[in-house]
Write a structure and sequence with these properties.
It contains eight helices and two strands; from the N terminus they run αβαβαααααα. The chain is about 55% helix and about 5% strand.
């Protein structure tokens, strides 16, 4: 679904569709690389956000990810969206989440948008070890994906804007 459409915009349409069919996964497919539009679509219940300049393979990966309840969004948009979240979200009280130093290294790499392969190379780990650390991070933060992990970590004060 596009963000900007005649008669009814994407967020309004997404809300109406999801009100009638709550199990549907909606992915925004748009030319807009505005973080405002991305946030509006996600707040309306969209599962993901894909730019129209993405190739067919990237669009297919995003749709498959959405079908697994992941939230695909363009990597280049992540830092701007996370800054917005960090600026508007209240920081929680004392942090009860404890991550190991290695988990913090992985989390900081994720916040910078690094892939598992890049994290493994940078940290001198096997990709499977990075994935294990990611699963542990997700469990400790009670989140389901990388974006949620970074957003939650910002709100908890585990990482800061300087880590992005």
């Amino acid at each position: 679904m596009d963000v900007h459409m005649p008669q009814m915009d994407g967020p309004t349409t997404a809300k109406l569709v999801l009100a009638k069919h709550p199990t549907v996964k909606i992915v925004a497919w748009t030319v807009s690389d505005s973080s405002d539009d991305l946030v509006r679509m996600m707040q309306a219940g969209c599962t993901g956000y894909v730019l129209k300049d993405a190739g067919p393979a990237e669009l297919q990966r995003a749709l498959l990810a959405a079908s697994r309840s992941e939230s695909p969004i363009p990597r280049r948009m992540i830092p701007d969206v996370l800054r917005r979240v960090a600026e508007t979200a209240p920081v929680s009280g004392p942090n009860k989440v404890k991550l190991t130093s290695r988990e913090m290294e992985v989390l900081r790499g994720v916040a910078k948008g690094h892939t598992t392969k890049r994290l493994a190379k940078d940290l001198g780990l096997a990709p499977a070890s990075v994935e294990t650390h990611l699963r542990n991070i997700f469990k400790k933060l009670d989140v389901g994906n990388r974006g949620e992990a970074v957003s939650s970590s910002l709100m908890l004060g585990l990482i800061s804007l300087a880590d992005l």
